[in-house]
Amino acid sequence: MKMEKIILKQKFEERMKLLLGNEFGEFMESLEKEPLVSIRANELKISVSELKKRLEEKGWKISQPVKEHPEIFVIASQLAPGELGRTLEHLLGYYYVQEISSMLPAIVLNPRPGERVLDLCASPGSKTTQIASMMKNKGTVIANEPDFRRMKILSSNLERCGVSNSIITRKEGSRLCDELHENGFVFDKILIDAPCSGEGTLRTNPKTMKMWNANGMKKMSFIQKRLLSSAIKLLRIGGEIVYSTCTFAPEEDEEVVDFMLERFPEIKVEKILIPIDHHPGILKWQNKEYDEELKHSCRIFPFDNNTEGFFITKLRKVK
Amino acid sequence: MIRLFNSKETREVLRALRDQFGIQEIPGRIIKLGEEKLFLFTGDATEEEIQKLERIAPVERLGVYFAKQNLLRVPHLLHPDEKSKQNQGSAPPIDVKVSKSSASRVGVKASESSAPPIGIRLSIEGSQILKNQIKKNTFELDEKQAEEWMSGRELNIRPGTRAFLVMKYKNDFLGCGKASEEKISNFIPKMRRLKNRDTGV
Lengths: 319, 201
Fold this sequence. Notes:
The complex is a heterodimer of chains A (319) and B (201). Chain A has 319 residues and is an alpha/beta fold. Helix content of chain A is 35%, strand content 20%. Chain A contains twelve helices and 15 strands. Chain B is of the alpha+beta class. Helix content of chain B is 26%, strand content 23%. In chain B, a hairpin with a 4-residue loop joins strand 9 (172-179) and strand 10. The A-B interface holds A 45, 80, 83, 86-88, 91-93, 114, 137-142, 144, 151, 155-156, 158-160, 162-171, 176, 179-180, 183, 185 and B 28, 40-45, 49-50, 52-53, 55-66, 124-125, 128-129, 150, 172, 174, 191-196, 199-201.
């Protein structure tokens, strides 16, 4: 199915041509396609098979494209606008409407029952609910969101999904990390799904292009570096941070991680397994060269799997 | 303000839940937020860590909202601070005909009196979390009633009891309703209601 044409700003188009080279045409074609409609079964409340059966009884055509993660459902049926969020199953918290690429940071983080996890930029709660599900509601996840209105959305989603091992805090992320550190808190795993310019969400959020400007990226890059720098101090030795954004801008992706590698010799980029098609991180952008380790980062473009774009890196504190 | 229940307070809640619904075990720690809301926390953060966290940042929620407790009518479930507050006349007086002996059997005696039910009202999540333990005071809905219920409407039926009832449709647990003589009152929050009859149950 074709979508309404997205008009790209010239500067953005030039940057994407530079970033993608001969794949730019595929990128442009992908912008005209409807993205996959996906949901995640909430195993805190229902089994994957039971949910699948119930939704199929409604006449929905469901596929499970990722063998290792049967909780990921792609809905092939044409649904009425808003229908995904209006079903009894959704209201009872049996599933979460979530883009496949947005499910990957928590999959890469791989939180286990009993661990201490910090989700620093948690609203609206898609990843926190996924983390709690992977932890089977055991251990503790601190979910932070500085904005009051967004915190309310987070709280409501956590409640709907039956998340009972979470503590919701409301504070600017880097200040929260600094004070947690001063008070002796340490974490096994931290997710920073950072605020970003959102270039990867052009199809699902067309406002992104209207708001896009090159200066915005620099501002975001500063915020992202500050968040990551503060969070690294909270990791136990051997602990892991997943840093993700939904933008293509290298200034907000590889550059942020490169900055961390330079500043914190105790961290290393970990190789990660992503269960869908993806690209490696880039090692050069405009006049900057990045650390060789950045090749272990992952970039997901809309033409890889017909999902939103994402960037994911996993860092480990080795000493 | 967040307050973790001590073991005595937890036992009191469990006693009420056992009397009302046959529940034998609370799978986590109970936290009270505000006047009546009870949250269930299954995390392993210690009380000391939670207090420390509260000094660092506003803590907005712990765990999941699982029940509402009508404490004002039931003195033995009150925290000492709240008891003294109530004694000072800042809270409504006990207005249910509860004898000394029945005061420890919250919810059961209430169904035998003409007064509204007292005790604990499970949220949707509370009823889902405890579903395998709920043995009594349930109300089985048919398909049409389930749709009405999830649309937020009260059910104009004679339930034959005065108590909080766990509403159930097939394997779905849908929170509690308040049964009175001629209806079951609905507490489904607006955000959790079915808005389109074509897509519901």
